[in-house]
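Hi R.,

Here's the chain you asked about this morning:
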Amino acid sequence: MEFGAGTGRLAADLLLGLELEGQLPESYAIVELSGELRARQQATLAQRAPHLADRVTWLDTLPDAFAGVIIGNEVLDAMPVQLYARSGGRWHERGVVRSDDGERAFRFEDRALPDADVPQTLRAIPGDHDLVTETHAEAEGFTRAVGAMLASGAAFFIDYGFPRASTTTRSAPAAR
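And the predicted structure, written out as tokens:
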């Protein structure tokens, strides 16, 4: 079962690869709510693996129970997060507001959180140094639902990140 099948390329590649290994599953389910994406997936499978397309079914909802392998490519990062900043030892919820400075249309704005409203996951972060982090309640709920549904098997959620070098900006020392 695949979540977030996008264009259907991963489904086609997995089915073709499993066929080469003699491990072709009896069925391959894609959980997809978008009619447009479902049509793209069907077209991709028809083009890349036409002889295997009849093994694929589409689901609108989660089954009550599932035994097998679950895969999700770029699913968790498509779910909304809440952004938080700790500054001066105090937690703030970070949001986006419209800017009036004329340079950019939007900017981040931090709003101090009353101590009672600070999530437990943030309280558990040691130290009091300044940092920015996020919580992911929807992804946590999704993985709990998938875990409850999975009678036997395994679930793999893939999310490509950026290499550290591409997310960290370092200034070169000035030449003397």
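Residues 168-176 have pLDDT under 50 and may be disordered.

Let me know if you need anything else.
M.
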